[in-house]
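Chapter review. Work through the record for Serine aminopeptidase S33 domain-containing protein before attempting the end-of-chapter questions.
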Amino acid sequence: MQLLKITAAIGLLSSVVAAASPPVVSTMETALPTLFNGPLYQNFISSVNGTVTGTPRPDGGAVTLPWRYYASTTGATKNTIVMVNGHTESFIRYRETIYDFNQNGFNVLTYDHRGQGFATRLGCTPDYTSDVDSFANYITDMDAIVQAGKAGPASGHNLLLWAHSMGGGIGAGYLENYPTTFKAAVLSSPMLSLNTDPYPAIAALPLDMIVELFGGPCVLAPGQQGPPSNAIYGTNATSFANAVTTSSFTRFSVLNQPYWEFPSTMIGGVDARWISQSMLTIQQIAAAGSKASIPIQMHQSGNDAFVTPDGQNLYCNGLSVLGIPVVKGAKQCNLIKHPTSRHEVHNEVDAIRTGYMQQVITFLRQYSV
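Structure tokens for Serine aminopeptidase S33 domain-containing protein:
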């Protein structure tokens, strides 16, 4: 009888907590074109802006990283999501996701990575070449942003992490090196192992390193094209037909519009140094997931053309051979699979994105103050 009373009390408490939480809201595809240059735009230009100096370039040149802080639209809160975007991206493409986080009661602190967006380029010619001097610098840059936020608009705040793709790889590495900064983290299609098609994964890195050895760090990696691609930055149906980022034409076309207002933010093919730095480092990060101690919600895209599930599975769940743990995974990691989603779950069709946003917001609210 006592056990039944305890169980009933727990159930009642859960119901009260659920009832106290406001419903999760997210933008619908049909409304996005109208909202994009209205409420979403007004929210986007409402930010507090700043810059930080990242780790210097190898030639000693300064690296300037721009950041933006967006306050919750539902009232003052100390819950701030640090949003870490992906490869070749800029925060200008995240107008909808920022708006949805703000609408659900979170502040957002976001920024552009070295070598892309509005951040300093790293010295390759042409400067739209996707390059990084050291993948580890992405992680130290991220900490510079976090510290700027803590010293500024996010002072005294409860920090939560949301990171996508390359940002997810950076975020995963950050959690291993700075385990107490965040209360909880969402890693969305994190780049913890690369899709190296048409080259076998075992051959891709040695081939790239040979190309880098003879061609220099800025030479394009095998199979890469130079100028920015319409399959990444386009806005029309022809571009979308070649796109593999999302199956939502509405989101693909609308969210890419700001790039054409700021064409200098577009990034082209990746160079050999970016490939070698990324592959070597994310292998190490994926194998060291046990260093991450906070609750993590990881989202895996089943139709992902950019990253493979191998590194994600290793980081989150570890690896066992004949039932014997060989590599330990993150201590509190829940892997959620989206079988039909392309790489950008947060930019997918409503049938995928709405449920995804429900899972993300509900999870982050559990660790809010």
